Amino acid sequence: MKVVPVNSLPAPCDGAVDLLFIAGEHSGDEHAARLIAELRRKQPELRIAALGGPGMAAAGAQLLHDLTATSVVGFVEVLKHYGFFKSLFAATLDWIAQHRPRAVCFVDYPGFNLRLAAQLRARGLSVKGGGATKLLFYISPQIWAWKAKRRFTMARDLDALATIFPFEPACYADTTLPVEFVGHPFLADDYEAPVRFDPAGPVLLLPGSRVQAVGRIFPLLLGGFATYRRTRPEARAVALYPSEEVAAVARAELARWPALAGAVELRANAGVMPASAVLTSSGTMSLHCALQAIPGAIVYRTNPLTYLLARWWVKIEFIGIANLLLREPMYPEFIQGAATAAALAAQLEDCRTPERSELTRRQAGRLRELLHQPRRGTAADWVARQLV
């Protein structure tokens, strides 16, 4: 992935701005897009700008920079692109200082967003720093997994936090930060999931939304599916991609598997995809699949140094959010060297059994109960209350 420095960002189209959203990943762009669309329906006069992706642009925000096109994960990967992120960070600070939005709503992406919040306070631009711009944070960092002490700097810098998991407000109980559970966006009344369970459907292969991750994970998924087809030669699979950058990596990798020619289809992540089973990375799509009761497994591989650092810092039993919420392996996890072709093929075979399908259905029902929207309203309602 080639990235170039960002020296400046465009001025607001309307000459002023009420809200600036910042989301650095495809999942954050998706969540923020739905929030923005609802806000604009309820308050069409709001002027909204965004550092994010095509979802927020389609929802009606002025896109200042497509940050999702340069999304990276992991300590080593971030270091490789340090110059780009440094220039974008400076340009974003300058833009906020010049145009003074009423509020900045950070959406996940804590490595960038929390540093920016700290600088806005230090420069006297935010409310906590004596300025006029409120700092909101939607989708809590995973402080329950690692860097738990961040909650104190978040309380110092932020004005309000909205979470999408019901156990998260308790993680901030010893701080002064106002924290509210607003329900998970995947359970909103008007939300249509991008996948659905169909026992006659293809196997779904979901390597993720980041170029680097796809390059490491997609070969594992293809290897598992290829081994599965040795005894199920009729099996077909679909691999979804969120962007052309990811699609290019997936096409190049699939070309290395001539035995899978015609058996694996690459498809843009649009519409509703039926699936009988899934091999997925640990990202947002894994929760989509879990909520739709699609049986499967989680596969993950990262840079070896990043993995060693994560083993040191991260203290959680699972990496899949459905597993964490349920406190049991709804999706068995195959990480680094454990993600062998034989192990993944065995999982796909198990997914065909009635027992596995019934267990997954019951687990999906429990997930939906946990994540249902509370009575106080949606994330958009929460943002609107902060602007009063």
General description of the model:
The chain has helices at 26-42, 54-58, 75-80, 82-99, 110-122, 150-157, 211-228, 244-254, 284-291, 304-313, 321-326, 341-350, 354-371, 379-386; strands spanning 19-23, 48-52, 62-66, 103-107, 134-138, 160-163, 179-181, 195-197, 203-206, 237-241, 264-268, 273-275, 277-280, 296-300, 333-335. The strands form three sheets. The chain has a seven-stranded parallel sheet with strand order 3-2-1-4-5-6-7, sandwiched between helices. It is an alpha/beta fold and 388 residues long. It is 40% helix and 16% strand. The two termini are 42 Å apart. The longest helix has 18 residues, at 82-99. The chain is globular and about 65 Å long. It has 14 helices and 15 strands. Residues 72-77 have low confidence and may be disordered.
